[in-house]
Design brief:
The structure holds two protein chains of two kinds. By secondary structure, chain A is mainly β. Helix content of chain A is 11%, strand content 29%. In chain A, strands 7, 8, 9, 10, 11, 12 and 13 form a seven-stranded mixed beta sheet that branches. In chain A, strands 14, 15, 16, 17, 18 and 19 form a six-stranded mixed beta sheet that branches. In chain A, a hairpin with an 8-residue loop joins strand 9 and strand 10. The longest helix of chain A has 9 residues. The two termini of chain A are 33 Å apart. By secondary structure, chain B is mostly beta strands. Classes of the chains: A mainly beta, B mainly beta. At the A-B interface, helix 2, helix 3 and strand 6 of A face strand 1 and strand 2 of B. Strand 6 of chain A pairs parallel with strand 2 of chain B.
Chain lengths: 440, 34
């Protein structure tokens, strides 16, 4: 398993990296799980805001009006009113930071708007100028900053107990305690770890975490700990905090042990592999093994829900021109499902049992975003959508070789808009190789 | 009016204060309550 080396740096400048050309950031509305993800609405080019005037020549802080020239996730390229077609003083800022306001905010607080010094000579009647350029234009809702603050409240708190996949044995779960919450991402420390070093990062909506008792309820393997009593302050995270899965009807035709399918390999998210249903659990959950790579004791089976966007019917890769990773050691190449099923005496899982829903996600190839390296899930990295197959996104980590690419669902809580790290205070991993130009 | 979308845009009288005085303009602001 390849993993990246952390580059502890600050000052990567998304704005300079995106620039004013054809590179775009995925819109905030593509990420329903992030702050403002469901209330970003039509915030777009042309919207006017009140921003600090950094060219006033005055000792006190004053504001002026700017228009959005380009949006990239939470970040906006702004131009002060009065600069018209002059892009020389354009600047990027995160539209969700506290110093960006709807037009009208200054007047409500008794603050006068002051035009930048460099254009003061251009106009003798600023009132007439502003009436002309603002009438009929859009601005932010008056409660925009309140909404930003509200959307950054997260229900998971330190010392809450959860069940989470054991990162060293994917086939089982363990109890872990929430140690840190940043932007909805949880740092979980496995129970029985004295020094807090045995940790795991995931988003609070990750399919890898569950309420206490989940494993027993569905028949999933679980590593029991010797901790017999909760310590002071520890509390089981309430069930309603976790991502819900769709109810499924297992009473009719259903997955059976031994059925074949295609699945994203959780240990190599760059690959979609030939796989087998190893065990059918309750509530629609399945234990899946990657053909040719399985430990004899099943310790590397992993759990996917039957509605998971990470499992596919046999033939999915061929239909969509994706390279299917054949079982390790299988020599009859090119791999043919028909032959393989006959040789193994197995059947393919019925197509109708898979999730075929494709949301209108809004991602396009080339869009930039911030994405978790799922092989090292504490890292959120500068990334690009390079391919889209229905709801599946191919995520490339900028500056890294293609072998680090990962297949990720369009609704994955591990994808974030440009500016999310800045907004939440999470450390962003910049592209691996960069010229000085992109540093602030 | 701004382009049709799932969000309701409302015309609002927005107050502006400059060094020359105060006045209002009519702008569009989105209403999230919809």
């Amino acid at each position: 398993v390849k993993s990246k080396t952390v580059i502890p740096v600050k000052g990567f400048d998304w704005g300079r990296y995106i620039g004013t050309g054809d590179i775009n950031g995925a819109p905030v509305g593509c990420f329903k799980h992030v702050p403002m993800g469901t209330s970003w609405g039509d915030l777009a080019e042309g919207v006017r805001v009140e921003v600090p005037n950094t060219d006033s020549g005055l000792p006190m802080k004053v504001y002026w009006i700017a228009g959005v020239i380009k949006l990239a996730g939470n970040k906006a390229l702004l131009r002060y009113e009065g600069f018209d077609g002059d892009s020389g003083r354009d600047f990027w800022c995160n539209i969700c930071v506290p110093d960006i306001h709807p037009v009208g905010w200054c007047a409500a607080g008794g603050k006068p708007l002051v035009p930048p010094k460099s254009i003061q000579h251009k106009c003798t009647n600023w009132k007439a100028f502003l009436v002309k350029c603002l009438t009929g234009a859009k601005t932010l809702p008056i409660d925009f900053s309140t909404k930003v603050q509200q959307s950054m409240q997260f229900p998971f708190k330190k010392l809450m107990r959860v069940e989470v996949v054991d990162k060293t044995h994917l086939c089982r779960t363990r109890v872990a305690l929430v140690e840190q919450v940043i932007g909805g991402r949880l740092r979980l420390v496995y129970e029985e770890c004295e020094d807090g070093s045995d940790d795991f990062w995931c988003h609070m909506y990750s399919p890898l975490i569950h309420s206490i008792g989940w494993s027993r309820g569905i028949g999933h393997r679980f590593k029991r700990s010797d901790v017999s009593k909760k310590l002071d302050g520890q509390v089981d995270a309430p069930g309603q905090l976790f991502a819900k899965v769709k109810d499924v009807d297992q009473s009719g035709e259903w997955f059976k042990d031994g059925m074949k399918l295609e699945a994203i390999d959780p240990l190599n998210l760059s690959a979609i592999c030939v796989a087998t249903v190893r065990k059918v659990l309750a509530d629609g959950y399945l234990m899946i093994g990657i053909d040719g790579s399985e430990a004899a004791d099943g310790s590397d089976w992993f759990c996917y829900h039957s509605t998971s966007p990470s499992i596919f019917p046999a033939g999915f890769c061929e239909i969509n021109t994706i390279e299917l990773t054949p079982p390790r050691g299988y020599t009859k190449l090119p791999f043919r499902w028909f032959d393989y099923l006959r040789e193994t005496g197995s059947v393919a899982a019925p197509v109708k049992l898979f999730n075929k829903e494709v949301p209108n996600h809004g991602f396009r190839p080339g869009m930039k975003l911030e994405a978790v390296d799922l092989m090292e899930p504490r890292l959120v990295c500068v990334a690009t959508v390079t391919r889209i197959v229905h709801r599946l996104l191919r995520i490339h980590f900028d500056g890294w070789e293609d072998e680090y690419d990962q297949w990720v669902d369009c609704e994955s809580p591990d994808l974030y808009p440009v500016g999310w790290c800045q907004l939440t205070g999470y450390q962003l991993q910049p592209p691996a190789v960069l010229g000085e130009f992109y540093w602030d | 009016a701004p382009e049709a979308s799932g969000r309701k845009w409302e015309q609002k009288q927005v107050q502006i204060k400059t060094l020359e005085g105060e006045f209002s303009v009519t702008m569009w602001a989105s209403d999230d309550k919809k």
